[in-house]
Design brief:
The complex is a heterodimer of chains A (258) and B (262). Chain A has 258 residues and is mainly alpha-helical. Chain A is built from twelve helices and no strands. Chain A is 76% helix and 0% strand. Chain B has one domain: P-loop containing nucleotide triphosphate hydrolases (Rossmann fold), CATH 3.40.50. In chain B, strand 8 and strand 9 form a beta hairpin. Classes of the chains: A mainly alpha (258), B alpha/beta (262). The interface between A and B is medium-sized, with 23 and 30 residues.
């Protein structure tokens, strides 16, 4: 673990350059460029507010904020995982030709998506202003769930990046997994809509603890309970420990399988 | 390796490859394997028990037929492959020029690639910024430096790659068969640069099928045949053996292994 942090620091310039490269390529040759990172949640919000306020009547006031406060971090998680599966295989050319610390690729994938997430908070702030939702002081707490989310995502990224080197099916499985995961996580609905006796099942989902901090802070203006904060960091560090261990064990063999 | 006059020490290095297409590449094949439909596959010894030292300031040539293990050996020295067995010790910084434009991203411009390439080779942003101008001057590709490299000709590609690898001033340069690209003037420039490298006491490993080039440039030549080192000596001697094909080697390097991948 300490090795991970040491290497991440040592290769910080390279990681940053790769993350920026990722974003540059994603938005290159599009007229609006980086604006797409802002426009995506904006347009999504428009669609959702029409669907849920005019067509389906939602129980949640300011549904767009209710939704986006959790959907944006979820999008970061799911996009990172989709990228993760490709982060080693997609850089096969580099790995086969240059001696390079393999861990820079998954980390760079997460960093580039993190930049996207931070950009997507700008439209969220605009929406909060436009809808006259109060700005709670608990916004200041958001870096804490953000940290837990980034660590959890990095751990999962290490795992899926490794798995996809050996079995290319993983990239496809991840897509299906993410779709199922999306629906069993209370993102588009509220956990309160479920009878209390079923809620226990949701506690098994490690993402909930991390994502919940965002909704509580932005939408409700509440802080998570200490138990939930501890749970989120236990899940996050657990994932990182597990994911990085597998990654480290196999990283020297990647070059033979990509 | 305690001898300070050595740049690289290669000891008993072997590299085993599993012949790729028989590996369970998808989950379905993995299940097929569990059900007992075991595919037999073969291990391929690309480099076998190779040992040699390279002195600082030496220019070493590496020759051999296609598939004799030259590139694999270079990749082991460059740290791309971890050898199956044996050790490699490298003293000093090493710049690999193993494949054309390794580490270049085709969507990025030449200028962006210079930075990325340098960072990939382990240099700091600071260093790369300092050297950027010299790299651009040496590559001499004009306005193309700000165009995406996918628009480059293979010559331009190579000029930029060569410029980056040599301008960052490594102690050891590993060059694989790339001097054949580029026009006459640029090749001349490359040879000049290799000479100045030698004058500066740097170590160079050169792989080439151009035997004239090997004979002109190298102090010492290693001949690889089917993964084994057969000659380690003067350029004339190695080239003669290579052309004569007189060296005898034990045959099968393909080993059947019935057990599944661990």
């Amino acid at each position: 673990m300490t090795e991970l942090f040491r290497d991440a620091y040592r290769y910080r310039e390279l990681i940053w350059a790769l993350a920026v490269k990722e974003l540059t390529i994603r938005y290159k040759r599009s007229i609006l460029g980086f604006l797409w990172a802002l426009l995506n949640p904006m347009l999504l919000m428009l669609v959702l507010s029409v669907v849920f306020s005019k067509i389906l009547v939602s129980a949640q006031p300011h549904y767009a904020i209710f939704l986006l406060s959790m959907l944006l971090p979820w999008t970061f998680f799911s996009q990172s995982l989709s990228y993760a599966a490709e982060s080693i295989v997609g850089n096969a050319d580099l790995i086969k030709k240059v001696r390079v610390a393999k861990l820079v690729f998954p980390i760079a994938a997460v960093v580039s998506n993190l930049i996207n997430l931070l950009l997507s908070f700008i439209p969220l702030i605009l929406i909060v202003i436009v809808m006259r939702h109060p700005f709670y002081l608990t916004w200041l707490y958001l870096p804490v769930p953000l940290l837990a989310l980034a660590i959890l995502t990095l751990g999962a990224t290490f795992f899926f990046a490794t798995a996809n080197v050996y079995y290319r099916d993983v990239a496809h499985i991840v897509q299906i997994l993410l779709q199922v995961w999306f629906y069993i996580t209370p993102i588009i609905y509220s956990l309160e809509t479920f009878p209390a006796k079923y809620r226990i099942f949701f506690r098994l989902n490690p993402v909930i603890y991390v994502l919940n901090g965002f909704r509580l802070g932005v939408y409700y203006g509440l802080l998570p309970t200490p138990a939930s904060v501890i749970a989120s960091f236990v899940c996050a560090f657990g994932a990182l420990f597990f994911g990085y261990r597998i990654f480290r064990k196999h990283q020297d063999d990647f070059v033979f399988y990509v | 390796m305690n001898d300070p006059s050595l740049a690289i020490s290669v000891q008993n290095v072997s590299q085993r490859f599993r012949v790729i297409h028989e590996r369970p590449d998808t989950v379905r094949e993995l299940f097929a394997k569990f059900r007992g439909k075991r595919t037999s596959y073969r291990d391929f010894l690309a480099v076998s028990e190779v040992s040699f030292d390279i002195r600082k300031g030496e220019i070493l040539g590496l020759i051999g037929r296609n598939g004799s293990g030259k590139s694999t050996l270079l990749k082991i020295i460059a740290g791309v492959y971890r050898p199956t067995s044996g050790t490699v010790e490298v003293h000093g910084t090493l710049a690999p020029l193993i494949e054309l434009g390794a580490g270049m991203h085709h969507e990025l411009t030449g200028r962006e690639n210079i930075l990325l390439n340098g960072l990939l080779m382990g240099y700091s942003k600071e260093t790369m910024r300092e050297r950027q101008q010299k790299i651009i001057e040496f590559a001499d590709i004009g306005d193309f430096i700000d165009a995406p490299v996918k628009q480059y000709s293979s010559g331009m590609y190579m000029r930029l790659a060569f410029a980056v690898a040599t301008e960052i001033d490594p102690d050891i340069l590993v060059v694989d068969e790339i001097l054949a690209v580029g026009d006459f003037a640029f090749q001349e420039k490359c040879v000049q640069r290799l000479r100045s490298f030698r004058a500066a006491g740097k170590t160079i490993i050169l792989v080439s099928h151009s035997l004239t080039q090997i004979e002109e440039q190298c102090d010492r030549v290693i001949l690889l045949e089917k993964g084994k080192l057969t000659i380690d000596g003067s350029p004339a001697e190695a080239i003669k053996t290579y052309l004569g094909g007189t060296a005898t080697i034990e045959e099968p390097v393909l080993v059947d292994s019935p057990s599944p991948r661990a």
